[in-house]
Queue: 4 jobs
Job 1
Amino acid sequence: MIVAHGIGGIRDLPVPTSYFVVGAGVVLVLSFAALAALWRRPLLERHAGGRPLPAALERVLLSRALRGTVGALSLALLLLVWLAAAIGERAGADNLAPTFVYVVFWLGLVPLSVLLGDVWRALNPWKAAADGAAWLWSRLGRDYEPPFRYPEEALGRLPAAVGLLAFAALELAYVEPSSPRALAVAIAVYSWATWLGMAAFGRRAWLENGEAFTSYFGLLASAAPLARRGERIVVRPPLTGLASSLDTPGTIPFLAVMLGSVAFDGFSRSSWWQDAYYEVQLSLLERPDLADLAGILMSVGVLVGFVAVAGAAYRLAVAGAEWIAQDGRRLAHAFVSSLIPIALVYAVAHYFSLLVLQGQVAVKLASDPFGWGWDLLSTAGFRPDFGILTPNTVWYVQVAALVAGHVAGLAVAHDRAVALFRPRLAAWTQLPLLALMILYTVGGLWLLSRS
Amino acid sequence: MASLAELIAHGSNLDEIGAAAFVVALIVVIGFLGWRGGRRERERERD
């Protein structure tokens, strides 16, 4: 039921797609030259502090009442979606759960996080339930100490990276990703794993390191113009939040999963992959269970391969920068925040059409979440307009987003470099990062044009 | 998968081969510039 992530092919562009590839490379090289010539002092960090919102607005946004209400609504929504998945109509097209999980939640929260900051911190239903349980426990006069200390130095965000990879595998490798029953199992397993993680290691430790979506939306929100600073909410120029090093172990694998999974999604819709995939399926026509298993294993294997390539390419570029700098400093964590705008535009380029098109279906399904013929909100008769985007519009948005995001990535890395090195050396250290950005951009465009 | 000869014989793929060659050349030039620039910068620091 989930519509294809793109809408049709690119058929009537005025110039060949390869011109876009060359043009994107030229834009990146020119951007690099401009940054080297004009951006000679770190700017992002200086503006990262921002200005606080008006006190009255802050009081409302940070109030316990609002947090409790939002948390309760979010938990109720989780329960509704899980119930719809577990007992609602079996066809994904008639059930709210698949559209809600893959479109409203997974894609819809991306623009919200990038524009409004870390909204997931307030919306997270698993955190809301744990906060509620902790509040109740303390009202009963009981203390709770987590039995284990989370090994932050050793593992960091690795469990979150594994969680995100599992979600990507469910969406991209499982044979029936929009099966409501499969989603019900996945939601139940993830919910209990999250609650057990918080009970075992403490809420803060598990949310920051083990809960995949906290890391995902939190990293994207670090580029946002709104941010929490202690008990204040500040407004700042976009991207300035990326000025700091991300020292948490596991951040690079996590970002590699973000990049690699979207890249695999594009690849999995290319004719090369479809031919190879269905050749295997046809050869196992007599054994459908084995065919499903082979399909899942193939997809997971290539998905992991894409993640490994995305991470290895970054490591290689950083090794080049370290070789040029030759001062013994390890730079992997210093430049990793430059991958965040790239992960963002990969998501925008691949999924914005899905959000715009399938997001309309959510309006209809909201009235009948179980697919039982209800019309709770009088929107059951809503007819989505799938002609709202043309294939060429989608393509131009994809190209613009990819190029702009990689230029932003270059700027962030360059700002970090001039904070660490003298301007001339900083510019030289950025050449391997420029090569990386060109590879990511060209790879992204190629995958999108093949989809 | 198509052989190189088939790819070249197919007109529309010439575009892709050209774009790929451009990107590879660009990355080689960038790599060379980084290698030479870094070496010169360190020599300058030593002097």
Job 2
Amino acid sequence: MTASKIQPNYDKRRAQLTLEFGDDLKSSNFEMLKEQIATLLDDSEQWDSEWDTLHLDLSKATLVDSIGLNLLVSIIRRVRERPAEVKATVANSTVYQTLLATRMDKVMELSYIAPQRAQ
Amino acid sequence: MSPASNSTKTILVVDDDPLTLKSLQMILSGDGREVTTADNGMIAQDILLEHGLDYFECVLTDYRMPEFSGLDLLEWITSRDSSLSSIILTGEGEKDLVARALRGGAVDFMEKPFTIEEIRKAVEEAIELTRKNRVVESTVSDVKGISQLSKRLAPNRLLATGEIQSYQTRLTTRFLPIKETGGDFINVHPIDKHRMLLLAGDVSGHDLKAGFISAYFQGIVRGMVQHQPDITHICEYFNRFLINEWNLPDNPNETQIIRTSLAACLGLIDFENKTLEIFNHGLPLPWLHTQNGTVKKLGGAGPPLGWFDPLATKTTVYELEENAQLFFWSDGLEDYAEALQIQPLSLAYALLHEEDENKQNEIVANRKDDVIAIRLEWNKPDSTNEPNYLIYARTFPGNAHNEIDKQQESWRRHLQFTIPNLNPLKLDEILLCTREAALNAFKHGCQNSSEYNCQILFRVNNAHTRIEVIVSHDGQGIPQEELNRTELKEGNDGHISFGLIIIRSYASTLNYLNDGKTIKITFTT
């Protein structure tokens, strides 16, 4: 299995740090993603940059399972301490429905883009 | 119509030149040859139609004739009876041209001029070829006839409703042979108002010999079962016949060889005494699926009949469960399922669900062996629930959570194969819920230990409007309050249990059985 990479992208003008997930968020890659997130957010250059919004770009994810949801929860908890807002973009209908069903839209701003418009 | 007698050789000679026509008639007449003549192609057609093409054994025709050439005549003949040999007489240098124009058919060429001996020899060879062709055609026709006759024994019509008292029975069978005749077969014999025998078999080979042994065995079973439905006894008898009679070497000094063997599976179902007796020698194990969600592979499998005397195994008797389905299939089906990377059960379901014979053949289009699938259902008359059909069943060790992605891909493959019109979004929802139920079973039920097992079933109704996922394990159950919980709750490990929330959001119904060790998720499409 190829490691799914999380790509950071800092936008100083919008004061926003984007984390682009290259794959699903699921039980089988949870530990790997958790380590990557910890490395990224513990990195002083990323953390100390001036941003007040963390954008989770999940547009490439076709599956977010219960373990993947726990990863999102841990990210949100960490970022709220900063403090900063979290928003997420998804492009898969089932992923979107899952985030709504588990009320993740109450703890972050959630956007759904139709698959053909997803980058 | 046939030629006047076996020895009479009937020839049609066609030429627009009266002198040549007369000469050929004189040359070829006699020695048991009967020669009919025509001075153009149209008249030749009329003669052939009047007598029938099979009346003649050779057509000798000139190439150059006005209006309807020898070429036109031979093309007309070939399109109607490719077994009738013809000779076309061409002028010098025309042979290659005519050969290119005539594609196929039993045609010889003779360039003018030719000697009397040459024409006699060519005609004799053409007659021989016609006779050979017709023997082959006749054999093929007989084989097709046998194949059609064997379809009369197809069990669908033998098992009319009402033959078995106290149960509603339904039999569905698929028999997709690779050749017109061979050794695979399916039979169902109602013995009396309470008992029936289900029989599937596969004789080694796909030739007439295999067809003969197959028919012989079926006849013996049919006769014996009416008097003494002891299936072990029947199979022991036939095993001895194969070893001591059929497979004996032609020369007593030669070593005995297994010329023919027979793989057979017999199921004797007794609805009065509620027993199911299985005898299996050489076929894949039969499966039993009950409406309450249990799945069993039945019986032990011994080697095919004709290998060893005495037989190593006896019958296995089970208590007959109510509202159930019994499956038999052939090794040809198992091989094809393996090539498709799906379970034999799933392939059997797809074939049994598809009623169009052409589409059934498309499903197993590249099969290398005969494919047989049988499903016998029985339900109590007071059972009002619509039956569920099993399309996937697999048991995993309790520590298989690390392979969940591979399993999910396999579930996707099986669902797409068995329910081809399933909406992709609905498919994703079913897969996500199955994943959550399986992760829950591995982690909490089986505690990620290989000491326990987790079983996953997919079932569907006949209209494909309802799909059931049943995930069960033999580990620890889940407390009722946990099952009823609708709020998110954080566990001691800091993880929030989202699984049941996700399942509830997509499922039409969700049921817990067996102290929470079984979760049944129903989706409507």
Job 3
Amino acid sequence: MKYESVPSICPYCGCGCGILLQVLDGELVGVLPQKTHPINTGKLCIKGWNCHVFVNSPKRLTTPLIRKEGKLEPASWDEALDLIATKLGEVKKQSGPDSIAVFASAKCTNEENYIIQKFTRAVIGTNNVDHCARLCHSSTVTGLGASFGSGAMTNSVPEFPEADVILITGSNTIEQHPLIGSWLLAAKEGGTKFIVSDPREIPFARFADLYLQPRAGTDVAWLNGLMHIILKEGLEDKDFIRERTEDFEEFRKVIEKYDPDYVEKISCIPKEDLIKAARMFASAEKGSIIYSMGITQHTTGTDNVQTIANLAMLTGNVGRRGTGVNPLRGQNNVQGACDSGSLPDVFPGYQKVHIDELREKMEKAWGVPLSGEPGLTVVEASGAAREGKIKSFFIIGENPMLSDPDIQHVREALERLDFLVVQDIFLTQTAKLADVVLPAVSYAEKDGTFTATDRRVQKLTKAIEPVGEARTDWEIICDIAKRMGAKGFDFTSTSEIMDEHASISPIYG
Amino acid sequence: MDERLREVVKDLFAMDEVEVVISLKLSEGCVAPHMYAKEDDISSMVHSPKYPIGIVVSMIQKKYPDAKIGVVVRGCDERILIELAKRNQVNLDNLVLVGIACTEEEAKECQCETPFPTKIDVGEKVEGVTTNLDIEKISQMGMDERFDFWMGQFDKCMKCYGCVYACPTCICESCILEEDMWVKSGELPPEFPSFHLIRAYHSTDRCVDCHECERACPAHIPLVTLYRLIRKDVEDMFGYKIGTDVKEKPPLVTVLEEEG
């Protein structure tokens, strides 16, 4: 008779809520919210309250599977891993390292993402590693990287009630980040004013002091429109602009043409509302901006993000509590997967692969020569596979056959591959197409860390033993790396991996 | 208070009265329900913040009906166990309760009428809070104002079902609030008045005022006040006092039997 509550982190979204996994005699029987957690303070959303259910699903993968005569058949770990090591070695030799692509996962831990990108770069020898951030907030990583030097929330979630005005755009916060929604409702009750700008009348719109309904895709226009009014009425923060920003005069010239009439024509937001919104936001002592995929998932996503950053800088709302630019990231560890280098153009800690000095540092740390050529993104890799340029995919904890755009396109790409490995906890639509399927463990069966949307690095604790023969993602990848003759994968714990990660990534050091 | 609690639990183990004790454990800054065995180090045992420990006890007793289990309880925890016993969810005969009296501050925070269990082992008994400011405030509102107040509160609901999951006396295996007929899936907020009023009616003869629902509510809806107002009617009409006597049958059960 043994019962314990194991502290962990919810595996759904970027809020990063603290949960307690209730374990009775080694069996995961329920979830409780951590009352002492700074984000969720004893509360959860419906997904969090049920996040133990899928762990116990009878559909979990329990053994490696190898395709034999067209069918996926159970196999031993040795057989599966030897086959992968041999095949990847062959493809690399015959078609070059850049003919292999790896998809990492925003559901995996920081340590696992570190290992996955290290394996791709140091063992395969390519920068073709990317993950689902490409489809959500990579425009944030790029846009805020350019504006501020760091592509993440500038402030922390519990600061929201300190803001005087919060502008929410492209984020259906109550449904997509419910526990951040909880902080917003608290802010509302504490007197914070809200401007909601969204083509859809989202649930939070009914709590807004001002609701704007722009036409989809006109974000740069209406945001520039707000800044035009702010400048015309002299509401900008002149000290902040002088001391902290660059190229203001050029910016002013661009903004000049976005007068309310022009913007109303583009965005369909009545000019009276634009003026009200501009005055309300600019008059706030502390103004905060929240956005999410409604801003980033456009062809102009990066521009949208940078325009939001401009509005924050114009009004001096950066660098103080209760202010800032706050992108709400989707997956539980999408921030961490980006931080840990699962992107084709950067090493861990956003160190650019094409900068010689940084690459040399990594080469020294990992003891192998590395490619300085940025790799292919998720979407580019599928395209390249369809054209026959990519011969092999290794997909970990992602399901492009469900989540990527143009699934028919993805299917054609995956079916054309010489060799497809999928590592997951379920036999997903993507896994069904694989040559080898490897069973990984869920969040409840492993240690490691997730980085929440507000950059909070939080620890998971293994609560139960792996289901069937499943293994952790990092152990599997290290095992394959060693079978391919690589050095530098002799880790015995996630803590050792994080030590290495921290030693080379300034942001985690 | 935690020191005293550990002494009492140590004595309990020494007398061989229980095999295990269910209490709260502080580890790496996180407090959580935990089962301590006799040989365990109990220096991590704490009493705050409180958790719905009745849920844990019921779960463990279903697997180990004969085990002698010690449980550290506050006043509301004891009332929960009594209500669960009435509904055959726990067996009080196999439980040894270690009673903790809430502090004056805690009693005020919950506006709790009975902030102590029947037998107090740890802490000093403080008087219950009899005047309920939230209820007084709402009672002074006119009907229209009251309606607007509650509609405004229900409008915030995110349908997390936290009030259901956190409630230690919510025990139905299938919940009516998950039926599309009463609460449509995929719609926010839930259609008035079904979700909150059905839940309020269901709580009338079992809500022990433990505040778990309200503390679990991400929308900060004053659920305790709502349930208190409805529960008061049941108390007045049936003379029924929740969580006091395990032999006293809940009116929702008996009335239905008489009518059936």
Job 4
Amino acid sequence: MEWETQIKPVLKYVVLVALLILALFPLWYAFALSTRGGVDVFKLGLKFLPYIQYNPDFSSWISMFVDWPVSTYFKNSVIVSAGTAALATLVGTLGAYGFARLEFPGREILFCTNLLGFLFPVVLITIPAFVIMGSLGLINTYIGMIVAFTCFTLPYCIWLLRSFFEQMPPRLEEKASLDGCGKFETFFRIVVPNALPAIGSIFMLAFLLAWHNFVFANVMALDSSRYTLTVGLKSMQSAIMTRNINVLMATITISILIPMIFFMFMQKYLIRGLAGE
Amino acid sequence: MTLTRKLKENLLNYLFIIPCSLLIGFVVLYPITQGLWISLHDWNIFGAEPNQFIGLGNYSYWFVGEGSDVFYSSLIKTGAYVAIVVPGDILLAIGFALVLNESLPARPFWRGLALVGYAAPAVVGGLIFYWMGSAESFGVLNFIFSNLGWWKGTSLLTTWPANHFVICLSKIWRDYGFAYVVALAAVEGVPKSLYEKAKLDGAGVLCRFRNITLPQIKGPLMVAAMIRVVFTVGMMATPWAITEGGPGYQTSYLGVLTYRIAYVDWNFGRAMAVGIVMAAILIPLILYWVSRQTRR
């Protein structure tokens, strides 16, 4: 048997299919459980193939919006994630450009300081942040959550955007400054419009980072009116009777599918962004 | 004259980085210093009594006091957690990256699909594996383990080390995506000509992997592994969703323990102390990564 012509062409598909089944099974598991109505949740045991092994019941997909406050969780997640991403990309773009292109004393040390929050354990920051936000009366508010969430999204934005700006050819900016544009004018008129695709994809990454966060959201939200999707899911898990597990699983399925759609459509940008290039 | 002009230009340049630096100062640096201060107190979060300064009392509670059993067991378990999760991440990532670097029909689609775990919020990764490991009729991990004879009992989640193993699986599933994108970028960057040459020299496939692919992707993967160590220790959502650190303190890894002491026991002083010890362990890795990002 020849590796190049006979083994490899077959083996690569076998490995790919095996790996993808492993990777996709948990999502499929959640989806399959969401389609079991009522007592079927238990009765069907290890049958996970709707239509083939059993008749699916999609009532949980309606029930989660009607009987459970999932739409509130969604709304909160969208508001907080969009707000965080907007604040982080706005401030981050300005900062990243400064760190990439401009010269001033203490630049690298300030840059390092700005990156610190990316790897620093968030759970540790939540404790003093809870005290600080509490004294400012910002607990359980959207503003408080948005500001707090920048502690892990902003460093990420600055890090990715700086390397993007460094790779951007400086010709346009040089031309603009020869034409007499000031730094800010060059930045807003020339740099930002040219960098919009990158800024857009980094907005998405910051959005996802905020969307996925549990620990800070859980600390900042005191009651279910401010629960984000992740916090809401955990509280559903505690509140749910096993009989209602299909509702929980339906919510879980959407919480994965939405970022998944992002990944599919923006695969190229996002993969580059996630890899930190 | 030139001095003032230089000063003016510097000031103008600082305007770009002042907003983000102020925000970072407020949401990262100030809380960290405040946290150090909290760790020196018997901190009363509900404000009924004033916070009492107790020096290193919270630290001695964990290192030599009543909390030492919990603390040292948490430390060891965190090690056992990282030792399974990070290599698992990296191996899975290399596997995916190698296969998805081959020519395949609709390759971008499969590449995106392989990110499924990373699309899931960390807490959701935990919740799914919670039910997989549960003793319910659909607890698929429970079923597999008991049929393989690895497990005799009711639920995987109530006994050490079965619960630890379920948590590790869940964490790997949810997090390998990061190492995977790094590995994919690295594998793509290996020049094709190297393989062609090696083939002409008669090098076998394993030989090519060991001598060409591996040396080329080792650097980026080491950095990815380092980041994964920091995140595995520091993040608590996945294990929290599965066992909430229990039963007892069995699965209270350092991140989980910090969270639990803070928001279940509401003892901010002790939580901060254990958290700062965790940060102290991670700080060399964090600083190493941060310093790599600078240009000089």
